[in-house]
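Deliverable D5.2: sample structural annotation.
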Amino acid sequence: MTQLTPELVALTIRDVRDDGPEPGWTPLSQAELHSLVNRIEAEAGSDPLLVFAYGSLIWNPEFEPADRQRATAYGWHRSFSLKIERWRATSDEPGLMMALERGGQCDGIVFELSADRRRHDLRALVAREIKYREVMDMVRWLPVRTPNGVRKALTFWASTKRSGLTRPLPAEQASTLIARACGQGGSCAEYLHNTIVDLHAEGIRDRNLWRLQELVAAEIVARQNA
């Protein structure tokens, strides 16, 4: 099978202008961001604040953690199920980003926020991940198994049934969207490739993503040969 390589990813990158917020979504106000951060801190209490990373946060956390460990979230799995029209996509060629969906298990990394920078790092992290009012419910606490036992960790983009924001697609359909989508932040194929490379570096092999990257690679090659 064809593998998704940096050379194939480069074929998906285009110069795309910033078309503003995601259509139909409401940008989060500073007051709403402040309220969300306060809620998370209150829920964490005096315990160390842990964040479960399963995708881009692994390879680009943008903060210096006090500690990091392998962790597993049981009852959840990675899925390219969040349809997007901005950042790594456009309205003309929408793409998919990754979220957690129910079922299976997900191996990832759990980061501990440093105590002296906890609120600063948490606020920056929430501002990065949650930019719209409609997705505030996709910040949630999950029990994760670590070398130190089961811990409570914050995670982002864990789908809820009532949110209606995610919809898992057949792999063939998802791969077509991923292979074609590119926005101002790069392409969906680039995001998939970065995730797989970093998971591999952590000793994590997600068989669904490995199958998906083969399909995306084949789609890119087919488009070039068309």
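Annotation notes: Helices lie at 6-10, 30-44, 56-59, 118-129, 171-180, 188-201, 207-225. The chain has a mean pLDDT of 94.
The annotation will be released with the project's public dataset once the embargo ends.
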